[in-house]
Structures
1.
Amino acid sequence: DAKTTQPNSMESNEEEPVHLPCNHSTISGTDYIHWYRQLPSQGPEYVIHGLTSNVNNRMASLAIAEDRKSSTLILHRATLRDAAVYYCILRPFASGTYKYIFGTGTRLKVLA
Amino acid sequence: NAGVTQTPKFQVLKTGQSMTLQCAQDMNHEYMSWYRQDPGMGLRLIHYSVGAGITDQGEVPNGYNVSRSTTEDFPLRLLSAAPSQTSVYFCASSYSIPPNTIYFGEGSWLTVV
């Protein structure tokens, strides 16, 4: 199973951009890169996903390295409500491989 | 549209007791799974299912049983509760085709004394 590596924690000032890195050097060509976040005392929620190209949605942007061995989740203007644990996981496209491993994620602290 | 519904939300068990955590989804998702999350830790996969009648083990399956008799329901059974199973349990579901966005329940807080 392909694994991801993330820093344990990061800090950001409110209203500033945040770049959350993820390494996935064993990614295969058909693995989607997904990001989820978990607010305190809640279940994880979907943030964004991508395959090869950079992606934007209302919550964040996802920048994927050309070799796909790393990616970066970008929060353009961090707010206090963005304080959460952010998980980067790989979602295999090929059927039959459904062990979605979350790991420990990155705990983002946003400073007022 | 309720999404993923877990019951109970809170439960206290005595060591050796058995219980079932219920999980239901109304999105017609093929894939369902159970995770546990210990304090300050990430999510660990217990069991998962890719469709009715099909289940498989995740990272930490010992002490837990699952079954998938319908598409909607995926109960998690603790056979003989131990203090080490004190945790928060999350049920999740998704379609089996990309992008496979995962939807999580709100969690079940279980304490074994």
2.
Amino acid sequence: AQSVAQPEDQVNVAEGNPLTVKCTYSVSGNPYLFWYVQYPNRGLQFLLKYITGDNLVKGSYGFEAEFNKSQTSFHLKKPSALVSDSALYFCAVRDMGATSGTYKYIFGTGTRLKVLA
Amino acid sequence: DTGVSQNPRHKITKRGQNVTFRCDPISEHNRLYWYRQTLGQGPEFLTYFQNEAQLEKSRLLSDRFSAERPKGSFSTLEIQRTEQGDSAMYLCASSFRQGISGRWETQYFGPGTRLLVL
């Protein structure tokens, strides 16, 4: 079964510093990986995805993620954090299921990012 | 606004009452998903439609839950005889099928309906 793990409940970083939010995955077959951000009392906003191709994926708001097959990781990164980046971040994997045609996502438990001014 | 919309945004109800939520997906998106998110957790899949057909249901979806997408556009999620454990954020997402495998699809989420059962 597909799964993702976000080992950190919270990450604190100073404004202007680089940030990393960690995600590891476990899949059978090719991984389809996603990052979403959630602001308070809001739905999830899509940031970026890895399907195939370059291991470094660029997404919205200056975020990028590095796919590492050997370490089964898909860490979210940003070179310079902003206070406005403070939110809850979710890593997700598309569940390929036992049969074709399964499209649901399996989400991690989330990492709260706090960017300190 | 052409994103996914959900109504109501908040619902407070008493235990035992029925509630219904509505989701309007991005137009022309043929897939629609319902997830449930409890405090401190990531969203958990409930069910999914392709056009009007409900193709998958999670074991989380007890007999008290029913979802419909009658014309392949908007969807409703009904919870009968609500229990306090049903209190959660209910999220709807939609996507557009691309290609045979659909691997390029991205799900876009609505703002959610927050349910509180007293």
